[in-house]
Amino acid sequence: MANAFSGQLDKATVLAWLLEKDAAKLQSLWRWADEVRAKTVGDQVHLRGLLEVSNYCARQCSYCGIRTGNKSIARYRMTADEIVQAARQAASFGYGTVVLQGGEDFGLTTAWVEDVVRRIKAETDLAITLSLGERFPKELERWRKAGADRYLLRFETSDQRLFDRIHPPLKAALAAGQVESNAPNNVSRWELLTVIRDLGYELGSGVMVGIPGQTWESLADDILWFGKLDLDMIGVGPFIPHPETPLAGAVNSGPDLVTADVETTCKVVALARIVRPDANIPATTALGTVDRVNGRELGLRRGANVIMPNITPLKYRQAYEIYPDKAALNAPTEDEPDTVMELLNQIDRVPGVGQGKRGG
Ligand code: 5AD
Questions:
Q1: Is 351 part of a structural domain of the chain?
Q2: Nearest-atom index, ligand 1, CA of 235
Q3: How confident is the model at residue 359 (pLDDT cuts 50, 70, 90)?
Q4: Which of 90, 119, 237, 260 is 20 to 30 Å from the Cα of 125, by its Cα?
Q5: What is the DSSP string of 121-172?
Q6: Whose CA is nearest to atom 3 of ligand 1?
Q7: What percent of the chain has pLDDT over 90?
Q8: Has this prediction a pTM greater than 0.90?
Q9: Which of 272, 170, 179 lies closest to 220 in space, CA to CA?
Q10: 64 alpha carbon – ligand 1 mean position (Å)
Q11: CB 152 less than 6 A from any atom of ligand 1
Q12: How far apart (Å, rounded) are the C-alpha atoms in residues 220 and 158?
């Protein structure tokens, strides 16, 4: 582990940066993060093909558009053949990784996911990242043994009271008969991060920026946690209210609460780079959604070194509506390989070679 590189920032300093408004000072933060990025992970931008495999979800997270109970979206689950086909396509684009992301969908059974992982591994040289929510340690173990390399599970906020408010327990869905066979996972999300790491996955986590009720102080804690958890991957994006959720129209106001804007998100990206110098950090889709023209570029210039182009078949993409107007919904999309390459050319960066492991 590259702890020797770990940035030394205390909470007061992190908080001061989060609250900083002076443009010249912020320029120095962007430069600092970019220099650390160049020195540690270099100019390669790793491309991870993002495949949204299912929008079924047992959860009722108050921020998320695919929460159970949202009747306004059509539910879909990709077939194993469709997933393997999309993975082959990702490999043909030169991407090093495929990310299988979905709602907390227990219709994606342990054995089924295991089989999909095996098939992709047998047919391609791709790294496989799973992002399927809070699953049981036993399942995570089987998927790891089948060849899955990485797992993404954002902790969303380290403010436990806020987290509990926006992320009700699975019991509610069970009581409503929306989850059939599985007993609720009694390992908390926080504990799962350690389970995932101990199973030998590369561990990715992260937060939303500007969750209703999120304080600047808690966001400073989140950033320190990125360092303490020694995350391999850190994903952060602005909160975007979804009309079919309890947080529809919720906007933070007042001096204590985090604003969900591009600049604040970039500050978190930059500080994440400084506290975890060799982590893989994407310029996220949410950042590219709140600023369609510049969001991703700004992320890449301010600490990020990864893009996750959406490779979900277009017929499903509309329905993976975790927040509205997600980027890359209409063909030709900003996520076409050519368009992504153009962006990299413009900012003098090069596509990653190989799987883009942390430190590799
Ligand atoms: N706005 C921004 N990000 C969201 N996510 C879910 N819903 C929203 C939203 N409304 C993020 C969460 C989750 C990731 C897959 O998407 O952080 O972990």
A1: no
A2: 17
A3: confident
A4: 237
A5: HHH---EEEEE--S--HHHHHHHHHHT--EEE---B-S-HHHHHHHS--THH
A6: 239
A7: 86
A8: yes
A9: 272
A10: 6
A11: no
A12: 10
